Amino acid sequence: MLNQKLRRRGFTVVETIVVLGIAAILCAILIPAIQSSRQNARLNQCKERLKQIGLALHNYEENYKTFPPGFVLGGNDRYHGWSWSVFIMPFMDSNRLYNAILFESGLQSEYLKKDLHTHMAMFRCPSDAGPDVVASVAIITTPVVDWVVTPASVHVKNTFARSNFFGSAGYLHANAGGIEASDPATSDSADVNMNKGSLGTPATKYSLLHKYADQENFHGFFGQNSSVRIRDIHDGLSNTIMVGERYTPRPSLNGQQVIGDGGWLGVSDPTTAAALAMALGDTSIDIKSNINRQPTTGFGSSHYGGANLLLGDGRVRTVNAKINPKTYRDLSDIDEIYRNIDIDEMLRNL
Q: What's the average pLDDT block by block, 10 residues per block, for the chain (350 residues)?
């Protein structure tokens, strides 16, 4: 009798099912909340990195009275290619790397230095799942003659350190063979022949000394040999996109360079959309915000619903992927008169 009283009673099958059901319900409620919290934390961290980039750009402007060039190209010299992100490194506590660069030697020689392929967290979005190096980059190894670049024949594998932040180049305007600001958004820019407003389009009307992504045709904050001063921003700094983010695109099946891969060193070959998009982004194509990671010369992210854009006054805004195409393009154009719009109210209502 005593043993029977001391015998422990176990859980019944019904009780076990109830407990497991409650646990499953709690997991279903809590896990999405935790994931959302982590994603919000990564979104905010991405914003903070863009703010630091904005501060560095303005420190550069304060010292040199101009913002850095989108990328550098000489008329009769070895190919340079250094991008805006390299020039602001002294203002981002990266003097050691900056001082290791022999700028006169050009990207075609300096890219072999191991120091220049250092992973730099300040140029990466925490939500991006891409590797720290770009799988394949086509790089110029021949001199520039009369401002004309011979397309690259050398492909460098798994060497260039990745970046997710790109200078805004605007878009190729209609008078140069491109598009009007009011034209419908282009959904895919992987084939530049199908998108006349994108970087690297064959329709580009070349100017005399600036051939590949110059501001005479694109009207953005950054371009080939650009030298934008604050007084050149006719729309006002608070109404102009300066830098935006982009996810790492899906790798190609044949191992070739993908349109949308980015690197903080510079533009490796300005004759192609893929290489121009290493440092620049355009607004001819709509903002991408999805998990498909299709190739693009524009801006996009792995965040839900939009992408972070750095404005000229240093503020960062998460812009909805469904933004009106004309509004989006006008914000990237330093020449469009757009001052009367309350940008905060506009972006808040998208």
A: 53 72 73 61 90 96 94 86 94 89 83 77 91 90 86 87 95 85 70 72 57 82 91 89 94 82 92 92 86 85 89 94 91 64 38
pTM across the whole model: 0.83
In a domain, 12, yes or no: no
Q: Which amino acid is at 11?
A: F
- The closest alpha carbon to 276, from 44, 124, 71, belongs to 71
In a domain? residue 52: yes
Domain range for 145 is 46-348
Phi, psi angles (nearest 5°) of residue 157: -100, 135
Q: Would you say residue 257 lies in a domain?
A: yes
**Total of domains in the chain:** 1
| Buried-state track 13-46, b at ≥16 Cβ within 10 A, e below 16 | eeeeeeeeeeeeeeeeeeeeeeeeeeeeebbeeb
**How many C-beta atoms lie closer than 10 Å to residue 270's C-beta?**
27
200 in a domain, yes or no?
Answer: yes
Are 79 and 344 in contact, with CB atoms under 8 Å apart? no
Where does the chain show beta strands of DSSP type E? 136-139, 154-157, 165-168, 241-245, 280-281, 288-289, 300-301, 306-311, 316-320
> In Å, how far are 161, 267, 331 from 112, measured between CA atoms?
12, 15, 37
